From TrEMBL:
PROSITE patterns attached to this UniProt entry: ADH_ZINC
Organism, scientific name: Cellulosimicrobium arenosum
PANTHER family on file: NAD-DEPENDENT ALCOHOL DEHYDROGENASE, S-NITROSOMYCOTHIOL REDUCTASE MSCR
Cited SUPFAM superfamilies: GroES-like, NAD(P)-binding Rossmann-fold domains
Annotated keywords: Metal-binding, Oxidoreductase, Zinc
EC numbers on record: 1.1.1.306
InterPro entries, A to Z: ADH-like_C (IPR013149), ADH-like_N (IPR013154), ADH_Zn_CS (IPR002328), ER (IPR020843), GroES-like_sf (IPR011032), MycoS_dep_FDH (IPR017816), NAD(P)-bd_dom_sf (IPR036291)
Protein name per its UniProtKB record: S-(Hydroxymethyl)mycothiol dehydrogenase
Highest taxon above the source species: Bacteria
Primary enzyme class: oxidoreductase
Reported cofactor(s): Zn(2+)
Length: 364
């Protein structure tokens, strides 16, 4: 059976996205058909539109999602029909060299559904991050579905769905990649959705000094509400000098660059303490380069790391973070700026580019 549903499609580079009828097949072996409940509008979707991910147009956009499993194919044991799930783009293979080393969070051969969703004329769609959740239904690999145990109110779906990408990237950059310890100091450059999630992750991990850096006072105020103990507007203050002042002249134990440009990475490098850690989670533009003094890299010690999806293992991390949300220790609701429909995605891209939202969330 083929399911005719509405979805948001990017047909060509930098063209406005359109809501179109798409055809979704029943699940084959190892696949799951999911009725989408919510899907956050993420910068990655905009990267697809701009051709920054690949040239495999047309794209079915959307990936930060919750849904209900409607059907499963042969051999599926991860989920059952009727389960509420968060979708993820790291369905681990279990066979690659990372998985065999016991590090499935770095799986080098993550997989997606084998079958393709299409337009009405049969044109195959490339699903964003193998998900394509700006649609009423989508087809994914069963391993991309992480069950949510226990009840959640309908209005909570939008918040937990954001763990599917941006929030997990930020929280994981601190908890997993940065390995924050209780009592440490953390500085975060860039307080968009991912950076603000890193601030929330620092508080969740027990950091006692959390410095948020941005150029917008409204973003800094939101970061303070979510856990920042200090804020720095880098248009009026020297961010590196201020971080050192706040940390007794030493620099932060952990510095997260959630922007991904040479200027902020250099600041992050200079703002860390001896033996401190820098984590890059902001996605650089292709071809971006930076020059750092090798003697300082050696002399400062510590580590310079990149966070891939916050080094998340969805089956491990999503349920834990949902529990923290239920207990009131992680305010996921604060990240949902507005709730929109499929036809509002193009406008949501503009709001995201202007920095006026943390997340717009499509509700279906």
């Amino acid at each position: 059976m083929t399911h005719r549903v509405q979805g948001v499609v990017a047909r060509s580079k930098n063209a406005p996205v359109t809501v179109e009828t798409i055809l979704v097949p029943d699940p084959g072996p190892g696949e799951a058909l999911v009725t989408v409940l919510t899907s956050g509008v993420c910068q990655t979707d905009k990267h697809y539109v701009a051709g920054g991910v690949s040239d495999d147009f047309p794209f079915l956009l959307g990936h930060e999602a919750t849904g209900i499993v409607e059907a499963v194919g042969d051999g599926v044991s991860e989920v059952t029909v009727g389960q509420k799930v968060i979708l993820n783009w790291r369905a681990v293979c279990g066979q690659c060299r990372a998985c065999r080393k016991g590090q499935p969070q770095y799986c080098f051969d993550t997989h997606n559904a084998t079958q393709k969703m299409t337009l009405e004329d049969g044109t195959e769609l490339t699903a964003a991050l193998g998900i394509g959740a700006f649609a009423e239904k989508t087809l994914v690999a069963a391993g991309q579905c992480t069950p949510i145990d226990g009840d959640l109110a309908d209005e909570q779906n939008a918040a937990v769905g954001l763990l599917g990408c941006g929030l997990m990237a930020g929280i994981g950059a601190v908890l997993n990649t940065g390995e924050v310890e209780r009592g440490e100091s953390v500085a975060v450059f860039g307080c968009g959705g991912v950076g603000t999630a890193a601030v929330a992750g620092a508080r969740l991990g027990g950091a006692t000094t959390i410095v948020a850096v941005d150029v917008a006072d409204d973003k800094l105020e939101t970061a303070r509400k979510l856990g920042a103990t200090h804020t720095v507007n880098s248009t009026t203050e020297d961010a590196v000098a201020r971080i050192r002042e706040i940390t007794g002249g030493f620099g932060a134990d952990l510095v997260v660059d959630a922007v991904g440009i040479p200027a902020t990475y250099r600041q992050a490098f200079e703002a860390r303490d001896l033996a401190g850690r820098v984590v890059l989670v902001g996605v650089p533009e292709p071809g971006t380069t930076i020059t750092l003094p090798l003697d300082e890299i050696f002399g400062r010690g510590g580590s310079l790391k990149s966070a891939w999806y916050g080094d998340a293992l969805p089956s491990r991390d999503f349920p834990m973070l949902v529990d923290q949300y239920r207990m009131g220790r992680l305010d996921l609701d604060a990240f949902v700026t507005e709730r929109i429909g499929l036809g509002d995605v193009e406008a949501a891209f503009d709001k995201m580019s202007n920095g006026t939202v943390l997340r717009s969330v499509v509700e279906l």
